[in-house]
Design goal:
alpha+beta; Ribonucleotide Reductase Protein R1, domain 1; three-stranded antiparallel β-sheet; 10 strands; 15% strand
């Protein structure tokens, strides 16, 4: 009897240990399952957001190819215009997209309204840097370093930088024209946070000049002597009627920008930035960016018989309606 009691007493800790192991294993397995479910849900949400954003960009491309511009506004074709009262502007103003989920917004920016790193006056680039919090010293360093980066000599400007300043970082200045906007992240005076804020308002694609009709609020505020109230007044005026050029701008605001008149234009750039945004939750959003350049040339409505069918043997690469410069996507 005593032996049986001893055996039963020694079995109890073993049973408790086995139960503990099973309990811990169950909790671990449940935690793993929940983690996998959360990851699957996040993946599904991201894929859904990407699908909606991609659809919005494709509709934006269709509108650019089939619509027409009136001032800073993009007028869609009648079959889309009749489906709602959405107004799309070419100054980067986000708007709902016809025939896509109501939570998606699309911003279309004609690059003629952005700050061109190759040819914009230094005062405009300086103003844009100021708008995004760069102090006087940082602005001087970056602007001089940008000029040193793109010139062909090794002479250092007062606040600039040349190869001796970059070699310790493992690279050298290009000493020729910029190829991509991302390149300026390497230039002295620029940091990652400032670059991400300023990047959407920069371009290398305004060979035709700068058009005030397409300048977003941030670029308007960067102009000499401009206040935020003046910039918003210009934007509201553009919604009602075409701006009409630098003369109309000066008449509206009473500001003489002091730039060479040849810097301005009244036409459009063939390059556009399209940005689709989909909210994921209260804090995060999925952003899909695309830059395209529309091609000038013959429009081919269809392939068939007769004169239209005669072009069927041509290399279609020569007749593409647009060229995609880049795609960028991510959660912000």
């Amino acid at each position: 009897m005593v032996g049986n009691r001893i055996e039963r007493g020694s079995a109890l800790p073993l049973v408790l240990w086995i139960l503990s192991v099973l309990l811990i294993t169950s909790f671990a397995f449940a935690s793993l399952v929940q983690s996998r479910l959360r990851r699957t849900q996040l993946l599904f949400t991201r894929l859904e957001a990407h699908s909606e954003a991609y659809s919005a960009v494709q509709i934006g491309l269709h509108l650019l190819l089939t619509g027409r511009s009136r001032g800073s506004e993009l007028i869609p074709p009648s079959e889309i215009a009749g489906s709602g009262q959405v107004r799309l502007f070419l100054d980067g103003t986000p708007a709902p997209v016809p025939r896509v989920s109501p939570r998606v917004t699309l911003a279309i920016q004609n690059c003629a309204g952005l700050v061109d790193l190759r040819q914009s006056p230094e005062a405009l680039l300086d103003g844009l840097l100021r708008e995004f919090g760069a102090d006087v010293e940082r602005r001087r360093v970056f602007i001089d370093s940008l000029r040193d980066w793109t010139d062909r000599d090794d002479f250092v400007r007062l606040n600039g930088a040349e190869k001796d300043d970059y070699e310790r970082l493992g690279y050298r200045p290009r000493n020729q024209a910029l190829v991509t906007i991302d390149e300026i992240a390497l230039i002295r005076g620029m940091d990652p946070a400032l670059f991400e804020r300023i990047r959407p308002f920069l371009t290398l694609d305004t060979a035709e000049g700068f058009n005030l009709a397409f300048a977003p609020l941030e670029v308007l505020k960067a102009l000499p002597n401009m206040t935020e109230d003046d910039a918003r007044k210009v934007i509201e005026f553009r919604k009602a009627s075409p701006l009409g050029g630098v003369g109309a701008f000066s008449a509206l605001t009473g500001i003489d920008l002091g730039f060479d008149p040849s810097f301005f234009q009244s036409g459009t750039s063939r390059t556009y930035n399209l940005t689709a945004t989909v909210p994921l939750d209260e804090e995060r959003r999925y952003v899909l960016e695309c830059q395209v350049t529309l091609r000038l040339g013959l429009r081919i409505p269809a392939f068939g018989s007769g004169a239209e069918g005669a072009v069927g043997n041509l290399d279609m690469a020569e007749w593409q309606a647009f060229e995609v410069k880049y795609w960028r996507a991510g959660t912000r």
